Amino acid sequence: MTDITLSIDGKTIAVPQGASILDACRTLEIDTPTLCFTETLEPAYACRACVVEVGPGALIPACARQVEEGMEVSTASERVIRSRRMVFELLGSATNLERADDDILRWNDSLGATKDRFGLPTKARERTAPHPGHHSPARAGDAESIQEPVKIEDDLYVRDYSACILCFRCVDACGEQHQNTFAIATAGRGFNARISTEFDFALPDSACVYCGNCIAVCPTGALVGKIQWDLRLEGQWNPSRQETKRSVCGYCGVGCNLEITTQDGRIVEVGSPADHDVTLGNLCIKGRFGWQFVYADE
Asked: What is the architecture of the domain spanning 238-298?
């Protein structure tokens, strides 16, 4: 395959033809924010957090644009930083990012994003928003009318759409890219756009098969395991006391790898490594949630 030579932040690099600018940035170990992008799904092109500047042209998402010979890319220009900061500020003004991935929180801090710039001031937000453990916080410009209760309909996982950033990862993971269940879709338009089951059915009445693959790709904690949710409410969720080890699921002969996370010696979460060629981070309901027998009395 022919290599393409380009310049990123003044550094020359050669990458395979067909690679994206994001691929090239990561080859150079340039820390590039991504929200809707994940290695196991096709790019959704939804968030614009990874924008870069190519020559004198418009800002473009690095995950969407393939490299071209002689391309000159800037990832740290004033325009790029201002645009990325605005993305994080707009999200922070309308959503709860407290449970977001460490990378998202780090990018938010490094960009100097201030959620109050577009939303309600912090004190006003606290006055108008219901308890964060049970309801969505106020959205920018509409502190009281847009409230959605946390959805707890089973003992497996929780849907708290106050943290949803509409990255569409869960939709793609539930759809044709992974599970092919199509239990999750986007409902509404504009400011009313939201993630929902078909016809907004309760989760047990929907097409959901409880594989939990949507949890695995959610970057903000909008979809989270029930055990983690309960421990967070109790103030007991503590990653510094957690340990993750790899094992192999014993329910069938596929050979799915498991990442078993324990805290203080007890299992709190089971996932699968995204780089495993069998699972690509996916599991079935038994592999992800069927481990309670470990603690059965008989």
From this structure: 2-Layer Sandwich (3.30)
